[in-house]
Amino acid sequence: MSPVSTAAAPQAHVTRIQRVAATRGAEAWLVEENTVPVVAVEVAFRGGSAQDPAELPGVVGLMAALLDEGAGDLRAETFQETLEEKAIELSFSSNRDAVTASLRTLPENLDEAFGLLALALSRPRFDEDAVERMRRQLAAQLRRDALDPEDLAGRTFFAEAFPGHPYGRPPRGTVESLAAISREDLFGAHRRLFTRDNIVIGAVGAISPERLSGLLDRLLADLPETASLVPVPTVAPSAIGRTEIVTLDVPQTSIVFGRAGPLRTDDDFIPAYVANHILGGGSFSSRLFTEVREKRGLAYSVYSYLSPYDHSGLILGGVATRNDRAGQSIDLIRAEILRMATEGPTPKELDGARKYLIGSYALRFDTSTKIANQLVHLQLDDLGIDYVARRNGLVAAVTEDDVRAAARKLFGAGELLVVAVGQPVGLPGARVRPAPGSAESHAPAVETARG
To answer: Please, what is the angle between helix 269-276 and helix 387-396, to 10°?
Structure first.
């Protein structure tokens, strides 16, 4: 059986996406590109911080941070020195839905690079000194971010939107939960996620399908066959219509707002994507930018975007403004959301959005690393190997009626969950509480009358 099948893709640098099978059951998507002597590989394992134990958030994040801190017979110092000697770039990260590895190397160092990646994925050491060092680093980051207004607004939003759900827990954990994580917890998370049936791979560069197939077998050799992921329920965000104020002594209020949005595989995702681009995703051309910044100078930046997770869809947005302008800013945002829901786009707005979204798509494929990342996300989102070839046609086909229908569903009556961090003025009916760890946090929370 040939390990290779192909699908065409029109983007520059993406002339052919090939399926490359490994004899051990998994496959990779490959864009072979020999004009630049570099190979970029992206690997993902489904699960992410949504797989953290409810009482111990941060396990998967700490585990991912430790994967290049020694593996197999190589302690952290030796592992890092080997990467440097061979000019191999290797990094790991995690989010709510996945753990990812990014590899970049020269073709002549592919054997060594895949050998180190295979060790990191299958035989991490989690040495006690490395665990303690990384634990301290992550805890220090959490302490620095604890009273950062933007970070605090985002954390509070997810806690309110997803109470009792894995998405409501902090992906990086807390200072207290990090301190409680043991090496056994790390090995347990690794065993549950890092398996052959749970891996997704994208590769780009000067590597043939046959060479990649052999390297995949090496990569998969020591991974167990089957993952044991905890089921995560698919839910809609809650608390829509509520306003939360977290008081913090800063001159500017940071606001995060949002409501339910589509999942990535929903039929109306592309029309909703176009609708959001017109509302707040289009940078200098969006309605929110025009009304909030350009006409009134209330904020330097205001934006919205679709955020489809594996188990919930969101439309999220943000703005930072002077405390005394917070109420005016969010009132304008609500008004523009409601206007989009009731009126839809103008023909000029729709034409501009389609042209921009079609023309800018190629920017996602202008480096090998970006292409590898896209190949993995197409697989994680189950969009099909031909999606790159189809995508711009899907955007071009969106009509005014499509966007109006998607906007009505997406924006509803304009209700939002709003979280404002600072000392905002003009947000009646908000529930008010002090920031954790602030001077006011020892006082009881106050809930004001709803206006």
So the answer is: 60
Of 388, 427, 411, nearest to 260 by C-alpha is 411
Q: Which residues contact 146 (CB under 8 A, 6 or more apart)?
A: 152, 436, 437
- Rounded CA-CA distance 180/239 in Å is 31
Q: Do the bridges between strand 417-422 and strand 431-434 make them parallel or antiparallel, or are there none, so unpaired?
A: unpaired
Two tokens, residue 34? 């020999």
SS3 291: helix
Q: What pLDDT sits at residue 439?
A: 54
The burial class, CB within 10 Å (0-12 / 13-18 / 19+), for 430 is buried
Determine the Cα–Cα distance for residues 152 and 111; give it in Å rounded to an integer.
Answer: 44
DSSP string, 327-366: HHHHHHHHHHHHHHHHH---HHHHHHHHHHHHHHGGGGGS
Q: What number of residues does the chain have?
A: 451
Q: What is the per-residue pLDDT for 50? A: 98
Q: Give the containing element (helix H, strand E) for 18.
A: strand 16-21
User: What pLDDT is stored for residue 445 in this prediction?
Assistant: 35
Which residues are within 8 A (CB) of 364 and not within 5 positions of it... i.e. 6 or more apart? 370, 374
For residue 410, give the nearest of 323, 303, 253, 304 by alpha carbon: 304
Per-state percent for the chain, helix, strand, coil, to nearest 5? 45, 20, 35
Distance CA 71, CA 112 (A): 14
pTM: 0.93
Give me the pLDDT at residue 307, please: 98
**Six-digit token string for 294:** 């350009």
For the chain, how far is it from start to end, CA to CA, in angstroms? 68
Q: pLDDT below 70 — which residues of the chain?
A: 1-15, 438-451
Closest by CA to 133, choosing from 72, 65, 189, is 65
Supply 251's token pair: 């001159």
420 neighbors 258 (Cβ within 8 angstroms): no
Distance CA 219, CA 196 (A): 10
Other beta carbons within 10 angstroms of residue 401's beta carbon come to 10
Helix/strand/coil for 70: strand
pLDDT in tens, 254-308: 999 999 999 999 999 999 999 999 999 987 889 999 999 999 999 999 999 999 9
Cβ burial, residue 173 (10 Å; 0-12/13-18/19+): buried
CB 427 within 8 A of CB 420: yes
